[in-house]
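If your schedule permits, I should be very grateful for your opinion on a structural question. The matter concerns a single protein, recorded as an amino acid sequence and a row of backbone structure tokens. Could you please explain, in whatever detail you think fit, how the structure tokens follow from the sequence? I set the record out below, with my sincere thanks for your time.

——
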Amino acid sequence: MKKIRIIAVLLTVLVLFSACSSKKTSLSFDWPEYNTPEEIAAAANNIYVGKVTDISFELIDYHTGKPAASFVSGSTQLLYTVYTIEVDSSLKGTSPTIVKIAREGGTKGYDDEALDKLLKKYGMESVIIAMPDDTLSLSLGETYLFCTYRAFDTYDWIINPTQYAFSLGSDTATAIAAMFE
């Protein structure tokens, strides 16, 4: 959690510097990478199987875990892609029937009009916070095994951009699920 806060503070500083520029700026994130299904399961305090029912974008204050009413430059607010998940079964931790997973950055290529509208609403047109190219993209209507952590009552947070959701039947999903049988 401390590493995430440090990263978020650094990102906020970068947003401040880049907001003064008329150029579009992309920011990237530094994440831990896990080498085994056991490490992934240990990093997550919630593991569940569920279906993606909605994908949206929100400005969220990462210190409170709550949506922001307005953007304040230099604050602890970041743009997030929010996946709404209908939970089928919980393997680790406790999960309500509906979970919202917050993933830093916008998802270009998915409802760009809504993303651009949100950026404009908050005066953030000059800054696009994007995830690395290898970021996992989830599809509406698809079911995955999710590995997340919950620090607040509002959202689940990803453990990293490539290892928080796995297609059912994949080797990693099968190995993680087997740990909780």
